[in-house]
């Protein structure tokens, strides 16, 4: 199973993990590493490295960070450059997990999982107006 490490500023990572558990139940090979105000990047680096050992099941690890360019992302990116079986995704949202959490047992290539996780996250970013317009368009085309 591909392991997931959620990370981000404040308590966004643990909040996302809490939401995942609420909606989908407890998940194996998933942990959240927060970066609260006042923590140093050295502590975050050590904590992320330790998290790898706690969740890695031999099929790779995907870090999912909150913000491109932020400290959690940059540290995860540095760690990923040290191992070919670690990927980093940014733009943490619940939709990506709704589509991909249960695919971790079926996808054994961490790069493919990363690509599909990003696509699922992008699909989840939309607006009601756009969704309704597409629905109306589809209904008009069916006539």
From TrEMBL:
CDD domains: PTS_IIA_man. GO terms for biological process: phosphoenolpyruvate-dependent sugar phosphotransferase system. Keywords: Cytoplasm, Kinase, Phosphotransferase system, Sugar transport, Transferase, Transport. InterPro entries: Bacterial_PTS_sugar_comp (IPR051471), PTS_EIIA_man-typ (IPR004701), PTS_EIIA_man-typ_sf (IPR036662), PTS_IIA_man (IPR033887). Residues 1-125 form the PTS EIIA type-4 domain. Gene3D superfamilies: Phosphotransferase system, mannose-type IIA component (3.40.50.510). It is found in: Cytoplasm. It comes from the Bacteria. GO terms for molecular function: kinase activity. Its main location: cytoplasm. Pfam families: EIIA-man (PF03610). One of its GO terms (cellular component) is cytoplasm. This is PTS N-acetylgalactosamine transporter subunit IIA.
């Amino acid at each position: 199973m591909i392991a997931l490490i959620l990370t981000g500023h404040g308590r966004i990572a643990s909040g996302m993990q809490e939401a995942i558990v609420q909606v989908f139940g407890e998940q194996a090979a998933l942990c959240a590493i927060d970066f609260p105000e006042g923590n140093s990047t050295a502590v975050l680096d050590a904590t992320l490295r330790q998290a790898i050992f706690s969740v890695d099941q031999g099929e790779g690890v995907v870090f999912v960070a909150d913000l491109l360019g932020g400290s959690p992302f940059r540290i995860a990116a540095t760690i990923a450059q040290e191992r070919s079986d670690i990927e980093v995704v940014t733009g943490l949202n619940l939709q990506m997990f709704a589509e991909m959490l249960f695919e971790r047992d079926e996808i054994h290539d961490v790069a493919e999982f990363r690509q599909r996780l990003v696509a699922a996250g992008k699909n989840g970013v939309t607006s009601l107006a756009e969704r309704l317009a597409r629905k109306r368009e589809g209904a008009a085309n069916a006539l």
